[in-house]
Amino acid sequence: MEPALLRIGELSRRAGVSPELLRAWERRYGLLQPRRSAGGLRLYSPDDVERVRRMQHYLSDGLAAAEAAKLAAESREESPESVFDPSSARRDLGAALEAFDEPYAQAVLDSLLSLTMLDSLLTEVVLPYLHDLGERWERGEITIAQEHFASAVLRGRLLGLARGWGRGFGPQAMLACLPGEQHDLGLIAFGLALRARGWRIAYLGGDMPIESVISAARAVDPAFVVLSAVDTESFTRSRAELKSLARTQSICLGGAGATETVARAIGATLLDRGPVEEAQRLTELAT
Length: 287
Known about the structure:
The chain is α/β, with parallel strands linked by helices. It contains 14 helices and 7 strands. The chain has 3 domains: 67 residues, Multidrug-efflux Transporter Regulator, Chain: A, Domain 2 (Orthogonal Bundle), CATH 1.10.1660.10; 76 residues, Methyltransferase, Methionine Synthase (B12-binding Domains), Chain A, domain 1 (Orthogonal Bundle); 115 residues, 3-Layer(aba) Sandwich (Rossmann fold), CATH 3.40.50. A hairpin with a 5-residue loop joins strand 1 and strand 2. Helix 3 packs across helix 4, helix 5 crosses helix 7 and helix 8 runs parallel beside helix 9. It starts with 7 loop residues before the first helix and ends with a helix.
């Protein structure tokens, strides 16, 4: 199977290097080896991600840029080629997070981002792990400290990947959790999946007063306002305000608390599948 190819923006996010600097390294030193799409876009491979990371390593050791690029382009890992294994990835990530080992958890995520696309990372590793984490916490198998630590590390990393997700020229989605709702990781994952499909994201975050959501929606006028909650009562409490907003804005409801009955009463679209699936569906609705 051919490895997934990346646009320069995704390469920049994975490697932590600006697109401008990546282009300079490609132009001056031939560090990157892009392919061309049918439309003429440069597309980069996971090998390019690794070369950029090796370049950064050599630069941090004090080498001049030209020498660092030469070594990064020539060096190869001696170990056998890594293969993306979601089960192993979830185990490794969970072991790090539940041992409060943030540096190792970040290293696991770095490795995964070099092996697979963001959609796969979300649907096969991060979201299943979070679901399992919640169930294990309810059974008393992990502590609340472990659950909070894992959630905080993953939230920070996902928001790091979200840097700049408001830029671009695609349709815009406004995302918010309803009042009292703090569980926003699924919503962030949904925003990242939308961003990977060319959307611009206006993220309001957790526990947003309805009045503030309405005010922001009127100011921004996004293609969709997406609201999330794990408790159905959160939607029913705000039904009148949301129904009024739905007369002028396209509203989507997501999270465990969103039901077909509530969505129909408000005049909203129900998002009841996974974040990546629903991001694809919303993209199709917007075209």
